[in-house]
Specification:
about 60% helix; globular; mainly alpha; Four Helix Bundle (Hemerythrin (Met), subunit A)
């Protein structure tokens, strides 16, 4: 009986993980967190970041990736690399891991960059899900920059990498529009799903 129950629970866990495909999860925000715990509020905030990132990067062309409005600005691809670093900071902090800077490695292709950024956002949302205010109060944002370790209150996650990610996702939206490839006009960031 115990083995059967264990097998069933393992199968249920695998099925739930399959449903949490990061490339599909942020396509639409279909459900709300169950309640307003401190962690769930952060989860919903990350959902908004993920939804915006998903649609800002959906259908980018080679021309879009190389687009920059000026010689002194990042290209869209370089901006996406930066967003990847910000998403890694959200995920590592949520998992109470150290953020190593510079990043040890980054994805090598645009497809992998998008896939791994979405996966990091999903990791962050899941790690924060259900956390209480008391649990969050004990968390810190830890940065290891070339061996120098610095710790900051969790508040810096919001005004730092989280807000910065939203800022740069907006740049991607603006840059691709300027390059002649605007995001899908059905995207509705207020509703968290596309209009019919």
């Amino acid at each position: 009986m115990k083995i059967t129950l264990l097998f069933y629970l393992t199968l249920q866990t695998l099925t739930a993980q399959d449903l949490m495909n990061p490339e599909e999860f942020f396509k639409a925000l279909e459900t709300y967190p169950e309640n307003y715990t401190a962690g769930n509020v952060i989860t919903r905030w990350i959902d908004g970041i993920g939804y915006r990132y998903y649609w800002a990067t959906e259908g980018l062309t080679a021309s879009d990736y190389s687009y920059t409005p000026s010689a002194s600005s990042r290209t869209v691809y370089e901006t996406l690399e930066h967003i990847y670093g910000l998403a890694s900071m959200l995920a590592h902090t949520a998992e109470e891991k150290e953020n190593v800077r510079p990043l040890p490695a980054q994805p090598k292709t645009a497809v992998d960059l998008r896939k791994q950024t979405l996966a990091l956002l999903l990791t962050a949302r899941e790690a924060f899900s259900g956390k209480t205010a008391a649990a969050l109060e004990k968390m810190v944002l830890t940065i290891n920059r070339k061996g120098k370790v610095m710790q900051f209150p969790l508040w810096h996650l919001f005004n730092g990498p989280g807000a910065d990610a939203l800022y740069h996702i907006g740049q991607v939206v603006s840059f691709r529009r300027a390059n002649g490839n605007p995001i899908d006009s059905k995207v509705n960031v207020f509703m968290g799903k596309n209009n019919n």
